[in-house]
Design a protein that fits this description.
The complex is a heterodimer. Chain A is an alpha/beta fold. Chain A is built from 6 helices and 6 strands, in the order αβαβαβαββαβα. A 5-stranded mixed beta sheet of chain A has the order 3-2-1-4-5, sandwiched between helices. In chain A, β2, α3 (121-129) and β3 form a beta-alpha-beta unit. The two termini of chain B are 27 Å apart. β6 (216-218) of chain A pairs parallel with β4 of chain B.
């Protein structure tokens, strides 16, 4: 076997092995997307009922609560960025980080100091590499977040927003995550969790003409709101974590699918080249034999025997 | 047919139970409250404790609820809880072990959780 042919054969073998791996990763990601989507769907009733309740208290009473009223001139804001622990997901993390950076820039232009909270190793690595300050970070559960994880993330954020701004608290809470639109589309979005914009919350949950009943609060509207809002933040963060996980798996699936396709193409090209090299080798051998034979014939033609 | 109200018992990560009922008893921070069809619109904070639902076919469903809310409007009652378990899902022996461990470790939260579970499980019997 010729040297060139051997090189091609070796490359085909290695690309085939890579293709098998990416194919497997694609299939794993595909099954995880479905699982993650199911989790998003399972958490929806709770989120819906909770949002409805928040709207009811917010619109049905004249209670003023630090979590629903805007500070007169906000000076500090917290940004929670959701990324994933692992890469191999195309532009998934890059998009989320870019969205967070744009939001941070906008907030800073408005004269607010920004505290960054990050979920996921990718985001942490990005910020550490650039030596930017991270207030707090969490890693290790982005593939399959549980409600306890969401609570863990929400706790310091709620604490920060309840504290006075002068003592290191924040006035606003923003979240940046990747919304799962469909298998093919996931978009990085940012939204303000607190202070609550009640009209916006109301729009998400109900039809325009529905009038909320006049609720009787037990024990009182303030207490209900006090208990309700932290749960609301937790539930929103939980939902964002789940959507982010689903998006990550979908992005991985797509990235791995194109990797598999590319490997297939590469194998095809290499096979063609290998065939060509083999054919050239055979042709050369034949012409060598023919040339040798005719040279032999020429040499014997002039002699007597 | 007796008047009915629709009940949805949802935990943070799943829907636990839903159906028609004639009476729901839950514990709010200011005491036990019973809700029957046609109750005034209500929004209350729940304590962790057992919730009893008397279904319209005469049965009783008991669930252990750890913190959450109850809201009632338009003959629809929603019970929201971070963690909610139906009494028949609770493993009594395991919970007893948990209770002992929590007592030994002095973990009051875990102790309370286990206690609520046990009470819900015994109430269902």
């Amino acid at each position: 076997m010729g040297a060139q042919l051997r090189v091609y054969k070796r490359r085909i073998r290695s690309v085939t092995a890579t293709k098998k791996i990416t194919k497997a990763m694609e299939m794993i990601a595909a099954s995880r997307v479905v699982k993650a989507q199911r989790k998003v769907a399972a958490s929806t009733p709770y989120a819906q009922e909770l949002t409805r309740a928040v709207t009811a208290v917010g619109t049905g009473s004249n209670t003023k609560h630090p979590l629903t009223t805007e500070a007169e001139n906000p000076t500090r804001a917290a940004v929670l960025l959701l990324t994933s622990d692992r890469g191999l997901a195309g532009a998934f993390n890059a998009n989320a980080i870019k969205a967070a950076e744009q939001l941070t820039e906008r907030l800073e232009r408005e004269g607010k100091q920004v505290d960054t909270y990050i979920v996921g190793r990718r985001g942490v690595a990005h910020y550490n590499f650039r030596e930017r300050k991270i207030t707090e970070s969490w890693t290790g559960f982005t593939d399959e977040p549980s409600y306890a994880d969401a609570k863990k993330v929400a706790a310091p954020l709620i604490e920060a927003i309840e504290k006075d701004t002068a003592d290191g608290g924040v006035d606003e809470l923003h979240i940046v995550y990747t919304e799962f639109v469909s298998m093919m589309t996931q978009t990085a979005v940012d939204s303000r969790l607190l202070p609550l914009r009640l009209d916006e919350v109301a729009e998400q949950t109900q039809k325009k003409d529905e009038i909320l009943p006049l609720y009787d609060f037990e024990p009182s509207a303030e207490d209900v709101l006090d208990a309700l809002l932290p749960r609301y933040v937790e539930s929103r963060i939980y939902n964002a974590l789940l959507q982010s996980a689903a998006s990550k798996h979908a992005a991985t699936r797509r990235a791995m699918k194109s990797a598999t396709d590319n490997a297939g193409e590469l194998i095809e090209t290499l096979t063609r080249l290998a065939n060509q090299a083999r054919q050239a080798e055979i042709t050369q051998e034949i012409s060598e034999i023919v040339g040798g034979a005719s040279a032999l014939a020429d040499a014997t033609a002039g002699s007597d025997y | 047919m007796a008047a009915e109200l629709h009940v949805e018992l949802v935990a943070a990560d799943r829907q636990v139970w839903s159906g028609e009922a004639t009476l729901v008893v839950a514990r709010t921070t200011s005491g036990d409250i019973g809700v029957m069809p046609g109750h005034q619109p209500l929004l209350g904070v729940l304590e962790s404790g057992p919730v009893t639902i008397r279904t319209s076919d005469g049965g009783t469903v008991v669930a252990a609820v750890h913190g959450g809310f109850v809201s009632f409007a338009d003959n629809k009652l929603s019970l929201l809880a971070e963690i909610a378990e139906l009494a028949d899902e609770i493993d009594v022996q395991r919970t007893e072990r948990e209770l002992e461990r929590a007592k030994a470790e002095g973990d009051t939260h875990a102790e309370r959780r286990a206690d609520v579970r046990l009470r819900a499980a015994t109430a269902a019997r």
